[in-house]
Amino acid sequence: MKINGILSKNVIRQVQHNKPLLFLWLASICSGLSISIYLLCEQWYVLKRLHMTESLGLILMATTLPRVIFMMFGGVAADYVRRSRIIFFSLLVRGLLILSMFLLLTIGQLQFWQLFVFAFSFGSIDAFFWPARDSLLPSLVHKHQLTRANSLIQTTSQITTLIGPLIGAFLLSLLSFKGVFITISILLITGSLFALNISDRRIIDQPGKDVSIFVHLKTGFQYVRRSPLLLALMLTFIIDNFFFIGPLMLSIPVMADEKFGGSAVHLSLLQSAFAAGMLSGAVLSGLINLRNARGRTVILLIMAEGAGLIFLSGAPFLWMAAIILFLIGMAISSINIPVASLIQETTDQEKMGRVMSLTTMVSIGFIPLSYAGVSALMTSRLSIYRILLIGGTVLLLYGFFLWVKARSLKDAS
Question: Is residue 362 assigned to a domain?
Fold first, then answer.
């Protein structure tokens, strides 16, 4: 109760007195819930309505891959177009796409190829939402409140990721696919109406008419290369997502199956512990509002992630694995929020969209590679527990490297 009370005073009061932040938060809720529900619904439609289990991976790829590919283009757009306008159109167009899916389903014409096209379009347009949102946030709050504002947005994202599939499953059991599509469409269109109320008075530099979008992308890369702090953070994203996320996420179902009984209850307990840790870390970050020694804290938490993987590889009991996963989840959120704040505080406003999209793209892009690498190692008879041990050791060593060599990150406050 104490935590909730403090959080309500520092964060909820901030939202109440900052209408643009309030509308951005509400738009993020609508977007986050719609994505979670949509992903569940499209998978279930492929499995249960189309009976094309072997094509499930193609649909997931069609939704997620464009988000990686177009994220950088979304970053360029966020630097030269009103960010609130991008958020509005991203939500509205996705809402109309889902409405079109509903109409096709009503006349019995929503087949696999149409679903594939809609999935690709949905993911592509969604890619423009995130860099616009994350680069708009610093202009809506004071610098000293940025960590709390990021905590609010990240906490909301974690909650929508947790409850979205549950809501989707409930709606599917209650309303059928048509009802769920209508619900998603209403959510997105409502979010676009919230976006209309976000004031974005930033002075926009117009790009040269003869300058291509690829030149703007190159400018964003060069900007990151010239900043030791941003370069260290980008490398950290790559190492962390490649050696950490894949081993961690693929180990949870394997451990539930091989070590702890193999039932859905055991799997849900482990996944819930991890998700609860991420949510707790996001809330705690907003509560503490860390302003000093953030770089050192991030490095120590990276080493804590590595230690967590090592301990998880040898956890003999379900309750012990659940506690370790809870702590790992806390570490992830406690890293993400100060890192986002550091990037937003140290990046020029006219480059913010490209830098934020580049960080997101690097984070998302290396996760599928990590999954593929872990799958290849498991196919070659290397156990997931050994992979966890290797990944944890790499993260520990990388943390020591950052502590000794990356002074720009270590001294960041």
Answer: yes
Please write the tens of the pLDDT for every residue from 246-295.
788 778 777 877 788 766 567 667 877 887 888 788 778 767 766 677 88
pLDDT tens digits, residue range 366-402?
766 777 777 778 778 888 899 999 999 999 999 999 9
Query: Residue 72: which domain range?
Result: 10-197
**Would residue 349 count as lying in a domain?**
yes
Q: Cα separation of 374 and 368, whole Å?
A: 10
pLDDT of 11 above 60: no
**187 shares its domain with 328:** no
Long-range CB contacts (within 8 A, 24+) of 110-119: 110/45, 111/50, 112/46, 112/50, 112/52, 112/55, 115/42, 115/45, 115/46, 115/50, 115/59, 116/58, 116/59, 116/62, 119/42, 119/59, 119/62, 119/63
Residues 379 and 252 in one domain: yes
Residue 1, domain member (yes or no)? no
Query: Residue 326 — φ and ψ, nearest 5°?
Result: -60, -45
Q: How many domains does the chain have?
A: 2
* Residue 56, domain CATH: 1.20.1250.20
Cβ neighbours of residue 103 under 8 Å, at least 6 residues apart?
Answer: none
Quote the pLDDT of residue 401: 92
Query: DSSP of 213-228, one letter per residue?
Result: HHHHHHHHHHHHHT-H
By C-alpha distance, which of 18, 11, 408 is closest to 227? 408
